[in-house]
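REQUEST ID: PR-0412
SUBMITTED BY: lab tech R.K.
PRIORITY: routine
TASK: structure prediction, single protein chain
INPUT:
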Amino acid sequence: MNGRRLLPRLLLFGAIVAAVAAGGIDHLFFTSGSEIGFFQEATAKARALGHNKPVRLVTVPHEHASLNAALGFATAYAVYLGVLGGRVAAGGIDFETIKLRFWPQQTIDTTKETIEWAKARNPLGPKS
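STATUS: complete
OUTPUT:
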């Protein structure tokens, strides 16, 4: 493949991988072929650049195995959401526990103490 066509393909597949990740897809089941290299390059580049949630490319040797692996993932997610919904329906949602989990008062207090300690050591007044 000549160099003039290589860069646009790398950019195209990078955009495809970014769009797939933005759509909430975290795994791509892929059967090896001539275009796999560009997908591998795009996913490796996203991971190397530290993108938030890069897509994981799962290479499967045959179409039937690829389809079954994707169906297995979808079934597992559906079962997980069903179990989660059942637990919420049975026990309800304890918002106070959620607040304590994601709003830890001890961490907030420690941060405030650290800020006050830093201000006491380094006053922001004019330097003489």
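NOTES: The longest helix spans residues 63-91.
REVIEWED BY: pending
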